[in-house]
Known about the structure:
Chain A is mainly alpha-helical and about 260 residues long. Chain A has 13 helices and 1 strand. Chain A has helices at about 5-25, 30-35, 45-55, 55-90, 95-105, 110-125, 130-155, 160-165, 170-180, 185-200, 205, 215-225, 230-260; one strand spanning about 90. Chain B has about 350 residues and is of the alpha+beta class. Chain B has helices at about 45-50, 75, 95-105, 110-120, 135-150, 170-185, 195-200, 220-225, 230-235, and strands at about 5-15, 15-25, 30-35, 60-65, 65, 80, 155-160, 190-195, 205-210, 215-220, 240-250, 250-255, 260, 270-275, 280-285, 290-295, 300-310, 310-320, 330, 340, 345. The radius of gyration of chain B is 24 Å and the shape is elongated.
Amino acid sequence: MSKLRLTPVLYIVFLMVPIYWLLTMSLKTNAEILGGFSLWPKDPTLANFRTILTDASWYSGYINSTIYVVLNTIISITVALPAAYAFSRYRFLGDKHLFFWLLSNRMAPPAVFVLPFFQLYSSIGLFDTHIAVALAHCLFNVPLAVWILEGFMSGVPKEIDETAQIDGYSFPAFFTRIFMPLIASGIGVAAFFCFMFSWVELLIARTLTSVDAKPIAAVMTRTVSASGLDWGVLAAAGVLTIVPGAIVIWFVRNHIAKGFALGRV
Amino acid sequence: MAEIHLKDIAHAYVPGEYALKSMDHIWQDGSAYALLGPSGCGKTTLLNIISGLLKPSEGQVLFDGKDVTGADTAHRNIAQVFQFPVIYDTMTVRENLAFPLKNRGMAPADINGRVEEVAGLLEISDRLDSRATGLTADAKQIISLGRGLVRTDVNAILFDEPLTVIDPHLKWQIRSKLKDLHRQFSHTMVYVTHDQTEALTFADKVVVMNAGEVLQVGTPEDLFERPAHTFVGYFIGSPGMNFLDVELDGSRAVLGDQSIDLKQAPAKKSGVQLGIRPEFLDFADQGISCQVTSLEDLGRHRIASVSISGQSAKVIVPSGKPVPSENAMLSFDPDHTLLYTDGYLEESLR
Amino acid sequence: MQRTKNQKAWFLVLPVFLLVAFSAIIPLMTVVNYSVQDSFGNNEFFWVGSEWFVEVLNSDRLHDAFGRQLMFSGIILAIEIPLGIWIALKMPKKGWAVSVCLVLMALPLLIPWNVVGTIWQIFAREDIGLLGHTLAALGVDYNYTQDTLSAWITVIVMDVWHWTSLVVLLCYAGLSSIPDAYYQAAKIDGASKWAVFRHIQLPKMKRVLTIAVLLRFMDSFMIYTEPFVVTGGGPGNATTFLSIDLVKMAIGQFDVGPAAAFSIVYFLVVLLVSWVFYTVVTASDAEDQS
Lengths: 265, 350, 290
């Protein structure tokens, strides 16, 4: 970088300071946190992290979250791909209404659905399972995935479809072997968004689980009230929830610039 | 309007790798130049150096003797039209055309008059007040051209392959319009293209480039009759010039067991090629013997591929003239038989 | 793109339709069902018609929450959109710095929302938080659990911290799709920086900006977790936004009927505002094309 760019640097500092604070707290003992104010840990300890990684009630939260997030991402992308293809290539009865109706579900406040979801999944015996959370998150992730993928697919010329047909590809073979590689970055971006919104959501995930599928975010809120504010462990748990997101961002970093334009700019 | 002097210019994007090799050229005021060469030969780099979008790593750019190397585009008073249309989406066609004038603080009444005039020339007067976004690529490019032509005080107008997106039949029309405009206002114009027809029909002087080097600056006739480099001979003309490896023996060029008499004897004896355009080879009763390997009929004329002592060449045969199937002999027009040493035209022939 | 008419395409859409219908229509029907009935427990329900709607629409509680919600969404849009554009314009254009900036900026977006709340709760506390401690040391009267203004500022700064990056990333994507020739042409035309922004960058960002405004409006209008964790809706009801109020009503007080009516009104408001915004933007697009 030839010259330092002040604005982005200041902005990143603003973003990093609270995260830094969380990190330093996770490395302090509870006594040090409450005992006095210090900008960095005087006596760094990994005890808080050890607590989380050895206690099943803590680390199972991470496993649960990961399971339903991955399930949701797979389901969302799998059903969204053919639908997005249909919307980008064909006109059919009610297509515009259907598209808007799908998008309108992205606009539904999760708070509205909390109680009905609880009753629905309880009544079909899926309460406190990973699949319940994964399916519930489809409410906002599937419309988003359809929308993003449709944008990318519209950017692929139709002649490719026709050429493949003339070359004797069956539709499934064309779709998986030719078409999907062409919109690979679109699939990546859609999966990124599905992962992101499913990973960060708490309200629905907490409502639909109690023990077996309880997400890490919910474990955190309950531990706070039960153990009388163990700040160090809470901070360590927070730091560990940032890690999966950071890894995912690292993988998509080269697609962000193009991908966030959602293929149609 | 100005004379453009590229004084010892060279440019490297990456240190050590010259995209543009050192050159020194003076481009005359009021002439129309075409910058011709294959893709990636450095044409656009050279153009951007003239317009000030790029600062050369070495040398100076002088406009009428004044050093403008460090001056940015706005201060050089240059107009440039790009390969793909650039229009301002938020504006009408009229506002698009007026934009360069408005930015330079011209009086509104003068702007309007000038815009109307240019719109008239480009035949877009009827859509001056429509939004510019919805137009076709052709129409957008014509507006881009208009924005280049609207300024009266420019030192030069540069065109970077401006007709790429235009329909073939419109291309011809716009090119002749540009030529008219040049005659009318006698701006210095520089027109970048990789299409020889475009270059030869547009320009007073054609600058042929290859691999970052200017190989020849000359009129279309010069390029045809006296290519300064084998690349020029090969690149210009259809089919390109024939080049035959020869040995020299005094004032004779030896080709296998045959020889051709030359008008002059060059100094160097090895690495020499004989160059002759297919137009100046002719089947005759005597001369150099060859085998005709194939014949292609293009309607207006035919192109015969021949093999002379193992080297191939093309001959243009006027329609109606027979092509011998056996014992063919070729005559070489001595005025157009040129010699090239290491790719460059023999000095005594320049 | 020219799309061909093909009713069989419905088969491709069917899985999505069924899945979303299952997740949306059945729960929505439940909500509608509740909204027109009352219950005394024991799973006995009886029809009350529009009573809950009348009650909810006339309740000061909803009006107040709605007012706070509008103010919150208005303020964060007014900050995040210009700030996001500004930062996107100042981003480096190439090299390793781009990747570093993008990765660091995207980080807050992938932090679970309650953790965002937790981070700010800790950060702003006077006893153990850097921000709260620093402000107290400077003699600023700041306490987000007691003082309404402090609570609002905390919640707004937290949202700016959390979401501005989304606007930055979208705008950056829009900006990086502008060909160099546009900037070169603008230079040659002698355009000022402002003119470049107004006539090149802003129009080219229009689509991503539409998305950014829509997403930020919808998500801020539905915000629940982050302020709930930080302020719990307080002090008093000062930061009780619509979702917090709704959850309080439905789960805390188990007023299912009014909560359901509230839900439907809420949903319709989000839908209506988004639809109006979208229609206005696409209509001006269509005008551009004609």
